[in-house]
Each structure stands twice: as C-alpha cells, then as structure tokens.
Specification:
Number of domains: 2
Shape: globular
Structural class: alpha/beta
Number of helices: 18
Strand order of the largest sheet: 1-7-6-5-4-2-3
Low-confidence stretches: 1-7
Oligomer: single chain
Mean pLDDT: 93
Number of strands: 12
Helix content: 25-40%
Bound molecules: pyridoxal-5'-phosphate
CATH architecture of the largest domain: 3-Layer(aba) Sandwich
Length: about 425
C-alpha cells in the first residue's frame, strides 16, 4: 500500500515539464546555518532558521538581504543545468529571499520542503491544479474559506474535476463520500467561518485507505505554532501567510509544505512554469513576521480565550464558537492536536441581522474589515461580507451554518481589557 501511494501521485506531464527528470535531484535542500538539536523549540527555530547563502565570504548577514535581481549571471553555458539545480537562474523559479522565508516555514512545519506563493489562493490553486486532472474526484468541506469554496464549486468542474461537498470536519462523511476516482481529500482547520475543528490524524488515516490519494489541509487559522498537520500524517499543508505568518496586515502571501518528494517536485515544477511566485520584498516581510510568530500566537491565544469567555456570558450573545471553550463541539479534538487555540472567535448576536450589523459598525477600537491574523483586531459579518449574496445562496449559507447574526472576530495582540471595553460599549447599542 505504501509503495502504491507513493507512485504516480502527480500527473507525469507536470513532472516532465520541470526540465529535470529526477525529482530527488531537483530538490536542492536548503542547508540550515544553525545546529538545531532535536530538543530545539519552535520559538527558537522561528527566530533563527536561516539557510546558507551561496558564495559567502568571511561574514554572514544576520538577516537575509532582499534579492531584487530578476535574473542571474552564469559563467559558462554548460553550467546552466547545474545552476538550475544548485543555484538561482531566474527569480520566478527561485531566489534567496523566497527560499529564506520558505526555509523558516519548513523548519516550523517539519516538512521535506516548502514553497512560498504570491498569496494563499496562489498556494491552494497551484496545489490543486498540480495534483488533479480531468476525471479525478475531490472531497471538500461545505464550509471553508470563501475563495477556496468558490474554486471548488465553480472552477474545478470546468476542468472536468468532480467535487463532493461534505459536512465540514466530519471524518466519517469523508469516508462515505469516497468514489473509485477519489484523488484528493481537502480540509481546513479550524475552518471558516464557524471554527469547526477537523481531527487531522483521523483525516490523514481516511486518505490513506485510498491508494495514491492525497490529503491537503489549510492550516491558516492555527499556524505551525499551534498545530502541525504533517506530523499527524497529512500529505500537504497550505497557508494564507497573509494572516498569522505575516501577521501585520502588510503583505499577501501563501505557502505549501509537504514531506513527499514527488508532490514537492510536482508543485515546484508547476509553480515554476505557471507563476504565482512571491515577490522578494514580500518574502522579506514574511520572514520578519515569522520571527515573532510564536510570541504573537501566545498573545492571540490568551486574548482569544479571554474574549471568548467574556462573550459567552454576555446576554446579547446567543452562541460562541471558540475551540478553547468546553462548549465547542470539537473541543476534545482541539485539545488533542492544538497547543493553544488562537485568536479566531465566531459568535452569534441574539436577534440576527440588524443587531449584528449594529455591533460591528459601533466598535471604536476593533476594525471592521475582512482578513485576520494580524496584530490589530478585525471583525466582519460573514452573511453580508465574505459569505454574502455574491458568493453563496441563503440555502448554502444555512447548510454551512452561517446565520444572519454570525460575526467573526480576529482577536489581535492589544490589551484584552481595552478590547472587552470596546465590545461592551458596542453591545450596549445593540
Ligand atoms: N485560507 C484561509 C483559511 C483564508 O482565511 C484565506 C483568506 O482569508 C485564504 C486561504 C486565502 O488567502 P489569500 O487571501 O492570502 O489569498
């Protein structure tokens, strides 16, 4: 079975397009400049992880510089293939800034390799389009990030790829939806918009029952500090690095990490050919964000729990979804696979649409905006914004548990007392 799963997981046409025939040869592993021993913590790795820079002199920059060159001089034409393999030749295919950010993410995720992308959707679509071909079947959750849902629902079918939507975070539903042509199991955890938690180990195990099938998980809400899907057997983990990894609302970026050589090479070849590469300037900011990720996640989680507890006891709030609350339907799964529970809270304002709108428009400190995972707190109303009529019908919203009173709060790293005071004054107006 293991052999079966390893072979032919990526269409061979894509593998052949990379120019180098042996995936193992093409995967130049970045060499870490520090000696991490097995006990080295994620906090330390997030701060220190840095790959060797080719052609160094006597000193080494403590922070990788931004590689602005779009192309690289080569000395002899016969060295071209070696440069492709061991150096950089053209920035779309690789540069030191992107490799430094990818290396740090890979160190935290515990992967064989990581690639960085122009945005989270770039990482997700490149992964899907590399791994799938016409005639394949995908099993995906009925509620996920709206962009992912839209790609699955409206775009993949145009390429002859069949998608079955199942109740999010229910592993048994994945098992029941398996067909002879199932190729990819897709999950998101904690998931948009209601913060359901998928049992990552059980999800990976179901995927392994189907020869050559691949599991892909969007781990954006957790970040590698709170959960590491690859360690639990998941094949591919994707992130919108626009969120916690970048962490400051000043870049859009994405990542894909895997322990599977064939998948890594396939996606690298596809990205190299089709684009969606990250700008070196944004790669620099992404790496800078990663350096403080463990600290920020600790504060997001602390604030998240405090605000979730405050909201849960408030008479104008009818329901709170936060993986760290015992009332969360998958609290036990969350406790098992997450080191703490992050800064995302979803809650229902009693009375539905109008009270929810009044609340989000009355806040003075917390900003009404889409996106999440930044230092400042952001709030949004899914039924009119991210999961509104432009994307979903009322029936789809109902199926995904997105009620009119639902509000999504991304808790930042401000003082939690100030945030609670802001919610208090806004709730008084509801
Ligand atoms: N995945 C999740 C869970 C998200 O929340 C988002 C964006 O909000 C994305 C993917 C898409 O990421 P990006 O906006 O960086 O393309």
């Amino acid at each position: 079975m293991a052999e079966n799963r390893k072979l032919k997981r990526v269409p061979s046409s894509i593998q052949d397009s990379g120019g180098i025939k042996d995936p193992a040869e093409a995967l130049r592993r970045a060499t870490e400049t520090h000696h991490f021993d097995p006990e080295t913590s994620l906090e330390t790795k997030a701060v220190c992880a840095q790959p060797e820079l080719k052609g160094q002199g006597l000193t080494f920059p403590v922070v990788p510089s931004i590689s602005v060159a779009s192309t690289y001089r080569i000395n002899r034409v016969d060295e071209y293939n070696d440069c492709l393999k061991d150096g950089y030749i053209y920035s779309r295919i690789g540069n030191h800034s992107c490799e430094s950010a990818a290396h740090a993410i890979n160190t935290l995720e515990g992967g064989l390799g990581t690639l960085v992308f122009s945005c989270g959707m770039g990482a997700i679509t490149t992964t899907l389009l590399t791994l799938l071909k016409a005639g394949d079947h995908v099993i995906a959750p009925d509620s996920a990030y709206s962009g992912t849902y839209s790609v699955m629902k409206t775009m993949l079918p145009n390429y002859g790829i069949e998608v079955s939507f199942i109740k999010a975070c229910d592993v048994e539903e994945y098992r029941k939806a398996i067909k002879p042509n199932t190729k990819l199991f897709y999950g998101e955890t904690p998931c948009n918009p209601c913060l359901g938690v998928l049992d990552l180990k059980a999800f990976a195990d179901v995927t392994k029952t189907v020869p050559s099938a691949i599991s892909v998980v969007d781990s954006t809400f957790g970040s590698p500090i709170l959960q590491r899907p690859l360690e639990l057997g998941v094949d591919v983990v994707v992130h919108s690095c626009t969120k916690y990894m970048g962490g400051h609302s000043d870049i859009v970026a994405g990542s894909m990490s895997t322990k599977d050589e064939e998948i890594l090479y396939g996606i690298k070849a596809f990205q190299g050919q089709t684009g969606s590469c990250l700008s070196p300037f944004d790669a620099f900011l992404l790496l800078r964000g990663i350096r403080t990720l463990p600290l920020r996640m600790e504060k997001h989680s602390l604030n998240g729990l405090r605000l979730a507890q405050y909201l849960e006891q408030h008479p104008k709030i009818s329901r709170v979804f936060y993986p760290g609350l015992p009332s969360h339907p998958q609290h036990d799964v969350a406790k098992k696979q997450m080191s703490s529970f992050g800064g995302m809270i979803v809650f229902e304002v009693a009375g539905g649409l109008q009270p929810a709108k009044t609340l989000v428009e009355s806040l003075k400190l917390i900003t009404l905006a889409v996106s999440l995972g930044s230092t400042e707190s952001l709030i949004e109303h899914p039924a009119t914004m991210t999961h509104g009529p432009l994307l979903m019908t009322p029936e789809d919203r109902q199926k995904g548990g997105i009620s009119d009173g639902l509000v999504r709060l991304s808790v930042g790293i401000e003082n939690s007392v100030d945030l609670i005071r802001d919610l208090e004054q806004a709730l008084a107006k509801v």
